């Protein structure tokens, strides 16, 4: 007998049990289904958080709050010209009143287009340099033009969303670790049950000169194969669910949810999970069998 996952037909016949093998495979299929879904959640949230950070890191909005419309427009024009002249700014664009009124329509209704309604002047800014020092220079330059200006950093007011995404990522990591621990526990229980079910066969093998390590190889190979077979089934089902959810998210057309997408590297990680769990089962079964056999001596 050689150490490995693949077994020879003669080895499979010694300890194989169709009923228990089928049960083990279905259990592992469910375990891997849940594990892959949790891993996909974590990877998707991580990608979305990184995409959100990239989009918002260099975005600012300058508000000029001034009751006098003429003074407000003068200050807005001066601020826009100053921003466009700064090396830290990639682009600066004034938000026209019609667009602002459209944003306020859900709250103000038709009153949002009233020309007498005072509204702040807004300037959207994309930074070429998103460092804190560059943002402070932009803020200082605008404040020198008018103290009525206020610089809002998009990343700051979206930080609760980023923290929530980070929480989901760590939750997914915890679930994957938990499922790995549960898989190891199931493997240990299955190995011990197999030892009890095949006690007489193992005694015969010992009398024929087989060592504990050789007996352990029979169990670890069988359990690892069952884990791999069930894991592949669970991973395929999980991949179909992930593809369906991804298609529905794409249909929404949401910029935020659109970032919850899996890249090629993420899919490689998901595909590798059943093989990783098979190796985990291999090791857990080997330790469980050797410990159990050692106690019988």
UniProtKB/TrEMBL annotation:
GO terms for biological process: cell division. It comes from the Bacteria. One of its GO terms (cellular component) is membrane. Keywords: Cell cycle, Cell division, Membrane, Transmembrane, Transmembrane helix. The chain crosses the membrane at residues 168-191, 223-247, 267-293. Coiled coil: none annotated. The keyword Protein transport does not apply. PANTHER family: CELL DIVISION PROTEIN FTSX. This is Cell division transport system permease protein. It comes from Hephaestia caeni. The lineage of its organism: Bacteria, Pseudomonadati, Pseudomonadota, Alphaproteobacteria, Sphingomonadales.
């Amino acid at each position: 007998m050689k150490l490995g996952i693949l077994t020879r037909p003669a080895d499979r016949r010694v300890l194989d049990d169709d009923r228990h093998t089928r049960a083990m495979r279905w259990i592992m299929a469910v375990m891997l289904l849940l594990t892959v879904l949790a891993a996909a959640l974590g990877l998707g949230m991580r990608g979305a958080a990184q995409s959100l950070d990239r989009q918002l890191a260099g975005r600012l909005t300058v508000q000029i709050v001034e009751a006098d419309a003429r003074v407000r427009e003068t200050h807005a024009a001066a601020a826009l010209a100053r921003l466009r002249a700064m090396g830290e700014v990639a682009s600066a664009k004034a938000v026209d009143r019609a667009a602002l009124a459209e944003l306020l329509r859900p709250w103000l209704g038709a009153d949002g287009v009233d020309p007498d309604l005072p509204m702040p002047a807004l300037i959207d800014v994309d930074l070429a340099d998103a460092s804190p020092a560059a943002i402070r220079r932009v803020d200082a330059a605008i404040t020198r033009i008018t103290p009525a200006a206020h610089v809002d950093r998009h990343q700051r007011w979206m930080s609760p969303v980023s923290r929530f995404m980070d929480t989901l990522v760590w939750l997914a990591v915890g679930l994957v670790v938990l499922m790995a621990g549960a898989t190891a526990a199931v493997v240990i229980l299955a190995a011990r049950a197999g030892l009890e079910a095949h006690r007489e066969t193992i005694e015969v093998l010992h009398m024929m000169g087989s060592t504990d390590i050789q007996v352990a190889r029979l169990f670890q190979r069988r359990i690892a194969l069952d884990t791999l077979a069930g894991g592949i089934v669970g991973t395929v089902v999980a991949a179909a669910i992930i593809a369906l959810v991804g298609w529905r998210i794409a249909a929404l057309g949401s910029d935020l949810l659109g970032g919850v997408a899996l890249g090629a590297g993420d899919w490689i990680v998901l595909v590798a999970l059943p093989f990783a769990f098979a190796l985990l089962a291999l090791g857990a079964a080997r330790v469980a069998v050797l410990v159990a056999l050692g106690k019988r001596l």
